[in-house]
Amino acid sequence: MTTVLIADDQPMQRFGFRMLLESQDDMTVVGEAANGHEALQLVERHQPDVALMDIRMPLLDGIEATRRIIRTGSRTRVLIVTTFDLDRYAYDGLRAGASGFLIKDALPEELLSGIRAVASGDAVVAPSLTRRLLDAYVKHLPTTPGGPATPDTRIAKLTDREREILTVIGQGWTNTEIAERFHVAESTVKTHVSRILAKTGARDRVQAVILAYDTHLVTAG
Predict the structure, then answer these.
(1) Contact assessment for residue 215 and residue 149, using Cβ atoms and an 8 Å cutoff
(2) How does the average pLDDT of the chain come out, rounded?
(3) DSSP assignment letter at 152
(4) Which of 77, 75, 53, 76 has its CA nearest to residue 65?
(5) Selection from 88, 121, 115, 130 nearest residue 5 by Cα
(6) Per-residue confidence (pLDDT) for residue 145, from 0 to 100
(7) Which residues does residue 183 pair with via DSSP β-bridges, in sequence order?
(8) Can you say whether residue 216 is alpha, beta or left, with left for phi > 0 and alpha for psi between -120 and 50 degrees?
(9) Is 73 exposed, middle or buried (0-12, 13-18, 19+ CB in 10 A)?
(10) FRET label pair with 217: which of 6, 27, 70, 158, CA 20 to 30 Å apart?
(11) Distance (Å, rounded) from C-alpha 3 to C-alpha 9?
């Protein structure tokens, strides 16, 4: 059973989410929060598998709430819910530690599959969409004028092959595409990805993409 917290300041939105989630045999809603402070309290109390997090909420917004949840080391994974005209906030949410984001007008089955994916440890953002988002806001990342970026300790432990794979993950490649590129089995790629996440401390594939940008393994264009 996947436990879910709904954090949204719109009562009708929370009601709609609850009706959808509780129609599923494998999901249960453990609480509703109308602002970020309530979300933090309920996450601490219930430790849900997934927090469905709105961005714009009173008292404490969803991005800062996400940042604080991740900072505590909670097992809860955050799924940001946004709209197309809030790409910048979705980007900030991912950098805060969210495991992905969905658009509020997503189809019900997309929301359900997204929650299940996040609960299982996967990212819910399509790699190509992740790259489009990061490309649009790569100007927010620090740059190193006049030469290569300073080596980052987060990737220092990676083997050459793992660094290559992290680079193409950042470019939006799927496991199947990586397997074909490097002429290995897809299960081998999954093993490499797991090791990359473990060595770098990235929570999931979305965070690995951000790491690839942060360390300048991938640049926009």
Answers:
(1) yes
(2) 84
(3) P
(4) 53
(5) 115
(6) 46
(7) none
(8) left
(9) exposed
(10) 70
(11) 20
HSE-CB at 7 with a 13 A cutoff on CA atoms is 35
Kindly list the distances between the CA atom of residue 151 and the CA atoms of 49, 78, 197, 217, in Å, as whole numbers in the listed order.
Answer: 35, 30, 18, 10
User: pLDDT tens for residues 26-44?
Assistant: 999 999 999 999 999 999 9
Contacts of 203 (CB under 8 A, 6+ apart): 70, 77, 97, 99, 197
**147 pLDDT above the threshold of 50:** no
Q: What is the pTM of this model?
A: 0.71
Residues in the chain, how many?
221
Place of tokens 């909420």: 57
Residue in the block written with tokens 């719109």: 10
State the alpha helices, DSSP H only, in the chain: 11-21, 36-46, 62-71, 87-96, 108-119, 127-136, 160-170, 175-182, 186-200, 205-214
Written as six digits, the tokens of 213 are 């940008």
Continuous segment of H or E residues that includes residue 30: strand 27-33
Q: Is the pLDDT of residue 148 over 50?
A: no
CB-CB contact of 113 with 196 (8 Å): no
Q: What is the dihedral of CA 154, 211, 74, 119, to 10 degrees?
A: -130
Q: Which two tokens stand for residue 184?
A: 């290995």
3-23 pLDDT tens trace: 999 999 999 999 999 999 999
